[in-house]
Structure formats: C-alpha cells, structure tokens
Amino acid sequence: ENAQYGCDHAGVGAALLERWKLPAAIVMAVRFHHQPSAAGESAPLAACVCLGNFLSRALDQPSFILDPANHGLQSALQLVNLTATDLDDQLNRIRQNWEFVQKLCELRK
Length: 109
What we know:
Elements: H1 2-5, H2 9-19, H3 24-31, H4 43-60, H5 71-79, H6 84-107
C-alpha cells in the first residue's frame, strides 16, 4: 500500500476517524492495529482491532492459519490476556454461527 499509494489502510482509516471526530483512543487503535504495543494507552483496544483483523482474514481466506508463532498475533494476545486457544475457540464459534449471520444479511437485501 505504501509503495503503491504512499499510505496504508491503517493511516487512512485513522485520518478518517479523526476527521469524523471519533475519540482519540479509537483513532489510535486503528492507526496502530498492526503494532498494538505502539498505541500507548490505546494498546489494548489496538490489540482487539488487530485480533479482529486476524479473525476476519481467517474467515475470508480458508487457507489462512492463526499461527500462534506469529509475533504480531502473540503480542496482541498478550496485551489483552488471551491465548491462541482462546482465539481459536472464538474463530470456531464464529464459523459455527456464520450461516446464521449470512441469512441475517440476506434479510437486509
């Protein structure tokens, strides 16, 4: 993104949230969701956004693996006192309910 556009989605998202006058903690969480420990007081919230990003990738790309050895994943989990097993459990819960969620989305059409 940086090479192609001169910015990345985290920076663009944070700039939009600032423009929309969202709280600074949310702006920081989005800006630093790929490096949550750099978000200062917003680190736990940034870790949650980071973990949500990992979960969405795992749902969107069946070949994507939540690798507990991934440093970014591990540091985000530590910031919110979770384990890789906790995240796997949550992913399985989401997958079990995914069909229901899709049906709900179809109701909006």
